[in-house]
Amino acid sequence: MVTLAAALHALASCVLGPAIAAISLGLVGPLAIGERLGRNARFASLGSGSAAALMGACGYFLSSRSVFLVTFILAIPTLLSLARIREREIDIAQAHGEVKREVPDKRATSVFTLVRHRTLLIFAGAMMLFQLANAAMLPLMAGVVTTRSSQWAPVLIAACIIVPQAIVALCSPSVGRKAQAVGRRPLLLLAFASLAIRGLLFATVRDPYLLVAVQIFDGITAAIFSVLVPLIVADVAFGSGHFNLAQGIVGTAVGIGASLSTVLAGYVSDKLGSGTAFMGLAGVAALGLFMIWLVMPETRRTA
């Protein structure tokens, strides 16, 4: 039953992110989507932090099973909020990334044209490298903290989760505005640089309390990517009518990177130590940084 529940959770996760991005695009359009995605990320971060605190309190004062009941209860206001969005408020064509033309352009709406789109493939590859470097960092760090400070490990790990969430809540709307003002590439470079620095610091910092401060870089990276991933996909798929397919292509790359990250980093950590594993993850992040710098074009639209 636990495995079945985990599978259903994974299926829901595959749908919810792209669906929310598509609804947002249908509501505000391609020119305002950056700031809208920033606000989405802020509320998502606030919701994640609040839910974690509530579930932790219920698990501590009541029972571990109460956490799942709280999840069920929190789904009710979520459904009520979704019901408040009127169907007529969403431009369906816009939500798919379509643009109305006087003369239909069959090539622009071709699936094969989209899946061979150079920028989309470059970005999907960069996102695979990002998750390959990022997904295993927090689990590995949690193991290091537990080894070095077993008494305070739960508190320190909780702090390592809360710090990035707080930064995402504070910075995400600004990221959306900056992405429209200065472009996507500078922010992508900043995110990959922050990830590489985080990996290097995890490999060298010994004080478990300082590791919490290192998580500031995770907050910077999360704030940028929570906004830029659907935003760049919307840029690339603009006018194609296949925005959601493009999200799926990038999402597949993200899933592959995340799956390989934990397996490979865990193996290296067992064989060569956590320091070597963190250095390897930092190297992958640096590879992604160079990929964005050398071959990723700017995708920002001004009209």
Please provide a brief summary of the model.
Helix content is 80%, strand content 0%. With 303 residues, it is mainly alpha-helical.
What would you note in describing this structure?
By secondary structure, the chain is mainly α. The chain has one domain: MFS general substrate transporter like domains (Growth Hormone, Chain: A, Up-down Bundle), CATH 1.20.1250. The chain is 80% helix and 0% strand. It has twelve helices and no strands. The chain has helices spanning 2-28, 33-61, 66-83, 92-95, 111-115, 118-134, 137-148, 153-182, 185-204, 208-236, 243-272, 274-295. Helix 2 runs antiparallel to helix 8, helix 6 packs antiparallel against helix 10 (208-236) and helix 7 runs antiparallel to helix 8 (153-182).
Key descriptive features of the protein:
about 300 residues, Growth Hormone, Chain: A, mainly alpha
The CATH topology turns out to be: Growth Hormone, Chain: A
The CATH architecture comes to Up-down Bundle
H-E order: HHHHHHHHHHHH
Taking the sheet with the most strands, its summary is: none
What count of structural domains? 1
The CATH homologous superfamily is termed: MFS general substrate transporter like domains
Low-confidence stretches: none
Q: Tell me roughly what share of residues is in helical segments.
A: over 70%
CATH top-level class: Mainly Alpha
Give the amount of beta strand, in percent: under 5%
Query: Number of helical segments?
Result: 12
First-last Cα distance: 50 Å
User: For the CA atoms, what is the radius of gyration?
Assistant: 20 Å
Computed structural class: mainly alpha
Average the pLDDT over all residues and give the rounded result: 84
Globally, the shape reads globular
The total of beta strands comes to 0
